[in-house]
Write a structure and sequence with these properties.
Layout (H helix, E strand, L loop, with lengths): L1 E3 L5 H13 L4 E3 L11 H4 L9 E4 L2 E4 L1 H11 L10 H31 L5 H25 L10 H15 L8 H10 L5 H4 L6
Parallel strand pairs: 1-2
Antiparallel strand pairs: 1-3, 3-4
């Protein structure tokens, strides 16, 4: 299997961290800023959105990073990472969808302004930081309830995708709310295979 996308991308790294949990060694090809453009016709033929990453598994092509993570877990029959029982799986996917939609949208303005240089007003940045912290507080409350991982006692794909998001929050040059459950959870995550390489590597 081959993964198209550059390593600094958080969406590429969530797939690579999933692969590390599964013992998979994905071949990776650099695409994105600083490398080949995903707007090239060759890439758009694989993903019409022109975004990274893309997974190529033989003649099967897949895009959307959280979907790729689910595919890899299903392909490897990793039922702890992605349960087969309907309610347990729905809980994992609920938090994965929350990460991709609600949490990602909360940090977009301050992250893009402070780390990517996209112009924004101080007021917009301040409001974005407050919204980012509020969403991380939702995660903290969930972790305080479970006392372990996002959906309970087991490490799942919800922890993979949210672990990358939490590390981005921790690395961002912003004023952060004290979130003890998140801090303890990230410490637990740091013992997992691939964490140092794909999560705790200083990349935002």
């Amino acid at each position: 299997m081959k993964l198209l996308g550059r390593l600094p991308s958080i969406n590429v790294r969530k797939v690579l961290w999933t692969a590390a949990q599964l013992g998979l060694d994905l071949e990776r090809e650099d695409w994105g800023p600083g490398f080949r453009s995903p707007k090239e016709p060759e890439y758009l033929a694989l993903n019409p959105n022109g975004l990274i990453p893309v997974l190529i598994d033989g003649d099967f092509v897949l895009w959307e990073s959280n979907t790729i993570c689910r595919y890899l877990a299903s392909k490897c029959n990793a039922t702890t990472l992605l349960p087969t029982e309907a309610r347990a799986r729905a809980k994992v996917e609920q938090w994965m969808d929350w990460q991709a939609g609600e949490l990602n949208n909360s940090w977009r303005v301050p992250f893009m302004a402070l780390l990517r240089g996209v112009p924004a007003t101080p007021e917009a940045i301040e409001a974005g930081v407050a919204n980012w912290n509020r969403h991380m507080g939702i995660l903290d409350a969930q972790l305080a309830r479970t006392g372990a991982y996002v959906t309970g006692d087991d490490f799942t794909l919800a922890d993979v995708v949210l672990g990358l998001s939490a590390q981005r929050w921790k690395n961002a040059p912003i004023a952060r709310t004290e979130l003890p459950a998140v801090e303890a959870w990230v410490q637990r995550l740091s013992t997992r295979p691939g964490f140092a390489e794909f999560v705790g590597n200083g990349m935002a």
